[in-house]
Amino acid sequence: MRITTIAGAVLGATLAAGAAPTAAAEFRLPEFDTIQLPNGLTVYLMERHDVPLIAVRAVVKAGAVHDGAQPGLSSLTGDALLLGTAAHDKASLDQAFDYRGARLAGGAGAEASTLQANFARADSAALLPLFAEIVQQPSFDEAELNKLRTRKVTAIRQAKEAPRNVMQTYYRAMLFGDRPYGIPASGTIGSVGALRQADVQRYYQRYYRPDNAAVIVVGDFQTTAMRRQIESLFGAWRASGPAPAAQDNGKVQAAQARVLLVNKADATETTFLIGGAGIARNDPDYVQLQVVNTVLGGRFTSWLNDELRVNSGLTYGASSQFATLSQTGTFAISSFTALPKTAAALALAHQTYRRLWEQGIDAATLDSAKAYVKGQFPPRYETSEQLAGLLGDMYANQVGREQLDNFTRDVDSLTPARAKTLIERHFPRDKLQTVLVGKADAIRDIAKSYGEVTELDITADGFR
């Protein structure tokens, strides 16, 4: 999960040069009820009566970190929930939601799987029971599962045609190695192709259980009535066997500067990531780091974009981001450039990054970034769907509401001196880790100047 979630797309959004930031608004997370059912299921209920809509999510702490020797199993299982239930086939479910103009989606990431639905309040009585059925009684129809697996294998193969689709996967695999955080969420062509119905059923039984999940409902309902409905629909859900034990998912391995050079023989561009260890999603410095990173590479007028795009014309864009996980995270500068400009772009990216330590951030620059971040924040949590996603994020990553409620205070209290402390504490300075995807024969010597080089062809199955 990227650090952009706390402020919507603060780090990924762009702002036209010279545009005035949106007026800041104080933000506090709306009140919500937290309920623990006897079977261990966590329930969040947040009433909102501005529009007659309801957003519901089921979040299960089951992701790629639990795939072990079968990368892609969590992703296949999460998507396969939508293939039908014991009582309704896929076509019936699709028709029930589509007919009412409702949305139903599922999927899995590094650490959690999510099933989500959005529908009109008037359709709650019909669709919420179906939602509960999908979570608790998936059929994993074998014929449908085989078709889904084939589509996923094709998608993995196609993703490598565009390096920016897979850069983060290569980067994580490089940084975490064989630890759980290094497992590719999508899986590999070989690993996904080998998965079978029995694997999905076993994974579901192991991790999809009430004491490892939360149900979140946000929207136009009465809390007392919704609580009764959730208890009725999910109260009989039972777990089998012991709950999954907590596990150490790994730390970034960066004992020396390294370069992963991924050869794409037909490439006319070089795509790159530069960085190292980052922070966990619930790190107390999370909010203030967004402001600092906004200066470096979190908006259109950032240092990186100014230097690599606007001033030098070396690339169409450059940015930086903290990608957060529940136990740790990564930091990376990212960009791409025409093959002949690779050396210049990499050098300028490093030079610009060093400004954090050599120049620091002055008060005027910091004030501009603070206004930008505060202006971008409140609109990202206006709808029930957005708030349901936020609560799911908070559940999966153990984030307290104080991080949201203190957002404005934390941004306003950031000073140049405090920014310097954060830079020293959290931005990797030495032993940087680099991923380059491009024509290896043309950039191999350039790669050697940034660390010990390991080469991999992009056509190879897997990411390390």
Q: What attributes characterize this protein structure?
A:
Cytochrome Bc1 Complex, Chain A, domain 1, six-stranded mixed sheet, globular, alpha+beta, disordered N terminus, 39% helix, single chain, 2 domains
Characterize the structure shown.
There is one protein chain. With 464 residues, the protein is of the alpha+beta class. It has two domains: 30-234, Cytochrome Bc1 Complex, Chain A, domain 1 (2-Layer Sandwich), CATH 3.30.830; 279-427, Cytochrome Bc1 Complex, Chain A, domain 1 (2-Layer Sandwich), CATH 3.30.830. 39% of the residues lie in helices and 18% in strands. It has 17 helices and twelve strands. It has helices at residues 73-80, 90-99, 124-136, 142-159, 167-176, 189-193, 197-207, 223-234, 286-297, 303-311, 342-358, 363-376, 384-397, 402-405, 407-412, 416-426, 440-448, and strands at 33-36, 42-47, 53-60, 103-108, 113-120, 213-219, 258-263, 269-277, 318-324, 329-338, 433-438, 452-457. Strands 1-2-6-3-5-4 form a six-stranded mixed sheet, sandwiched between helices. Strands 9-10-8-11-7-12 form a six-stranded mixed sheet, sandwiched between helices. Strand 9 and strand 10 (329-338) form a beta hairpin. The longest helix is centred in the first third of the chain and has 18 residues, at 142-159. The protein is globular and about 60 Å long. Mean pLDDT is 93; it is low at 1-23. Residues 197-371 form the Peptidase M16 C-terminal domain. Residues 1-19 form the signal peptide. Pfam families: Peptidase_M16 (PF00675), Peptidase_M16_C (PF05193). GO terms for molecular function: metal ion binding. This is Insulinase family protein.
